[in-house]
Amino acid sequence: MEEDDIVVEKNEALKNFLPGGFGKQEKEANIALQFERSKRQSQVEPALEDSKHLEHPNGSNGASQFDDRDGLDTERDDEDDDDEDDDDGSEEDEYPVSHELVLKTHERPITSMTLDPSGSRLITSSTDCTVKFHDFASMTPTTLRAFKSVDPTATKTSASSETHPIHHVEFNPVSPSSILVISAIPQAKILSRDGEPLAESVKGDMYLRDMHNTKGHISEITTGTWHPTNRDLCVTAGTDSTLRIWDCSIRMRQKDVIVHKSRAAGSAGRTRMTAVCWGSSPQGSSSSLVAAALDGSLVMWNGEGPYNRPTAEIRDAHQRDTWTGGLDISSDGRTVVTRGGDDTIKLWDTRKFKSPISSVSHPSTTSQYPTTGIKFSPTSTSI
Residue 241, exposed/middle/buried by CB under 10 A (0-12, 13-18, 19+)? Predict the structure, then answer.
């Protein structure tokens, strides 16, 4: 055998192992490939796939035989299919569901999430007692994780320090530099967008019977929210049958106390507040403050005060002793939606706050996950 006749087999594994060049090599991100990988896989019905391969008894394909038999009908069907595809496409474009990105960040169920108005930062809370911060601008395919994890209830670095689940987190809609954090303790906290503590509410005196004289919640806070237009005001709801409005410009000073007196038999005038929402009203009028309680009641106050008496109250909005965790007000301030623990979702008109304008059955998960909520879309056309 001559030297020219020697054949060297190609080894792809060795080729991939050896460097392709020398010197500094620049790494460029393949944006198109990353975008394609995040695309959700469309599920095609097996029956439709099988029908394409079905053969007619005479050996030909049934679809082709039908095309030869009546070409005009086929053209019309194609036109109809195109119209239907266009309609389906317009419906699919209404919601961004074509692509997805999975962030495996918490070890236990997520209780709440909030997105800043610019859409660049996501903050989540969980029953694992942590609040995690995600920055979309700094994420890469290999760093799909939170850049910071904070335990707002931890006071000591020792292993015996006491921690509590996080019920709710929410960006300030007017000033996204501050975040309201509600934990399973009597004190609410304000964090910066980077997780640094800014302010903390005080704990009330549990030995005072009149809740108006306490300087803070005396038991666990269940939820809270910001004022829709005033950057310095927020409200918290607690298991001590009170709503408390805080002025965050002065280190979370308590501004007002709203005591909800339950009329349920055997409640001694107290109940647990399960949900609260502060919505703006149309045409620049005063805002509305709506809260739900464990006794099944739904109460509405004038958002700007006075808070001595509610403007409207529904005693049996939902079944008693069921946790109404979902509550929201539409963007025009005229509709309230509630999701109760009695497996119902109800719509209420704030102008006729007596009976629901619509009620549908929907399985409730508040018995296992009390923070399960409900939300209007920004245009209030969907829930």
Answer: buried
CA-nearest of 287, 144, 293, 315 to 226 is 287
Asked whether the beta carbons of 199 and 209 are under 8 A apart, the reply is: no
CB 186 within 8 A of CB 167: no
350/285 Cα distance (integer angstroms): 14
Classify residue 39 by its DSSP letter.
B
How far is the first Cα of the chain from the last one, in angstroms, to the nearest whole number?
80
Q: What is the mean pLDDT of residues 253-279?
A: 88
Residues in the chain: 383
Paired strand residues for 355: 353
Q: For 165-194, how does the pLDDT look when each residue is reduced to its tens digit (9 = 90+)?
A: 999 999 999 989 999 999 999 999 999 999
Q: 327 near 372, Cβ under 8 Å?
A: no
**Token output for 60:** 């030909």
Instruction: Give me 255's structure tokens.
Output: 């501004």
Query: What's the whole-number mean pLDDT along residues 57-69?
Result: 44
Kindly report the number of other CB atoms within 10 A of residue 323's CB atom.
24
Number of Cβ within a 10 Å radius of residue 307: 17
What phi and psi, each to the nearest 5 degrees, are found at residue 140? -130, 170
Round to whole Å and give the CA distance between 247 and 238: 17
Report the alpha-carbon distance of residue 272 to residue 249 in Å, rounded: 28
Backbone angles phi, psi at 348, to 5 degrees: -130, 145
